[in-house]
Amino acid sequence: MKRYSSLLASLVVLSSIIAGTVVSSDNSHAEPLTITTGSFTDVKANHWAKSSIAEAVKEGYVSGYPDGTFKPDVNVSRAEFIKMVVTALHLPVGEYTTGSWYTVYSTAAAEAKLTVTSDFKDANWDAFINRKQMSRIAVRGIGDSTTDDLRWMYLATKKGLITGLGDGRLGEGETTTRAQAVTIINRILAVKSGAKLPVDKYAVGNAEIMWHGTNIFTVMPEILVTAANQYQGKTIEELWRKDKMIINSKNNKYRGQLDALIAIDLEDPKDPNRKLLPNINTLKWFNNDNRDDLMVNKWKQSYVLYAKTHVVYNKDTKMFSQKSYIPFDLNGLDSPDLDAFFKGTSLNMPALLYKKKVGDLPAMIIPKKGWIQYGGITFKIYIPAYSSAGYVSNQLLSVDGPKYNPDIPY
Fold first, then answer.
1. Sorted alphabetically, which PANTHER family does this protein's record hold (predicted)?
2. What is the pLDDT of residues 75-84, one digit of tens each?
């Protein structure tokens, strides 16, 4: 029993050291470690987080281990992360008396509205914190908030608080290391001081898709503009109608769903969503003619809209097409020279994209320049009905667009 008690005490001390405190074996008091400003033996000169670690130690909200290491790759618990954030933000902390060492910090975080009860429903503060939980705290740390649980990571990436794990991968459920934790806390402090941080556009795009099913506002913002009075009290991204991404026929015999409308920048060879497309050298665009030689690779200054969709059910194949995807449409962008478009000499308006035959890809190509506008720009999905009697469409977005002219009738 004595050996067991000794082992338990050692584990408590180790956990507390990671958080930057030393706790006595009877858990009666906590004493801060001496903050080290020198180099750590396990943080080499070329370590990606060396400057962040040095800054965090200088700010005094984290410290190293007695053996001169920092252990940058050790995972951080919820309690440890909260302790660091509370300390870094200089929030008032009550006096420690008894119980778990982190209670004074979790209480301080709750009082400052950095956390809410639903953040950690299991109330297990010793569990490792994941990136989604961290994003909530980071966003609240700079004074922002949301009632949409799917939006936290978008807000965090849009502000530069969190970046992706390569190719914009968000890794919401993945744990966080000490090096990653102090890097994010340093970013919180930077934003609060008025700094504008660089952002990982791929992470922002993926976070936007996760939030409301599209990344068009991240990838093609110069097209999606509109008068500010159309989204007063909100952001322009909130004009997207996520609730319209499921579409039903009038007779309730057909239901389809748009899972995501994904914009791909053909000028960016590193765009992570290019993997959704076949080899770009095999893709063609349709000019409403029978030509089969209009290759996309000649028009890389373009976006591709790719629709991830699925048919929930189709109980009337005589009225509704058996296509495996839900069609979508973009209105408002037109050609200034239709003859050139029909001849295939100019891609100057949106066109269907295909590989072997028209309709084999749920995709559309949009040139970045060269088009004109009639009225506003709208996105919609529609049911592939064989007759107008079964036609139903859902409008997902309506914006003015950059070339909107209210004097031109639409």
1. OUTER MEMBRANE PROTEIN ALPHA-RELATED, S-LAYER PROTEIN _ PEPTIDOGLYCAN ENDO-BETA-N-ACETYLGLUCOSAMINIDASE
2. 999 999 999 9
Beta carbons of 333 and 365 less than 8 angstroms apart: no
Question: Within this chain, do residues 273 and 163 fall inside the same structural domain, yes or no?
Answer: no
Domain count, the chain: 2
pTM above 0.85, yes or no: yes
Q: Has residue 407 been placed in a domain? A: no
Please state which of the ranges 28-37, 116-125, 260-269, 282-291 shows the lowest mean pLDDT. Answer: 28-37
How far apart CA 401 and CA 242 sit, in angstroms, is: 20
The boundaries of the domain holding residue 253 are 236-399
217, part of any domain: no
Q: 191 and 79 share a domain?
A: yes
Is the same domain home to 248 and 162?
Answer: no
255 and 189 in a common domain: no
Are 350 and 364 within 8 A, CB to CB? yes
222: in domain:
no
Number of C-beta neighbours around residue 210 at 10 A = 18
- CA atoms of 355 and 279, how far apart (whole Å): 9
- Structure tokens of 372? 């004109």
Q: Identify the CA nearest to 395 among candidates 376, 374, 379.
A: 379
203 inside domain? yes
pLDDT in tens, 312-330: 999 999 999 999 999 999 9
Tell me which of 222 and 33 has the higher pLDDT: 222
Residues 87 and 162 in one domain: yes
Average pLDDT, the chain: 90
> Tens digit of pLDDT for each residue in 194-229?
999 999 999 999 999 999 999 999 999 999 999 999
* 272-281, Cβ contacts within 8 angstroms, sequence gap of 24 or more: 272/167, 272/168, 272/202, 272/205, 272/206, 273/205, 273/215, 273/306, 276/306, 276/308, 277/304, 277/306, 277/361, 277/363, 278/355, 278/361
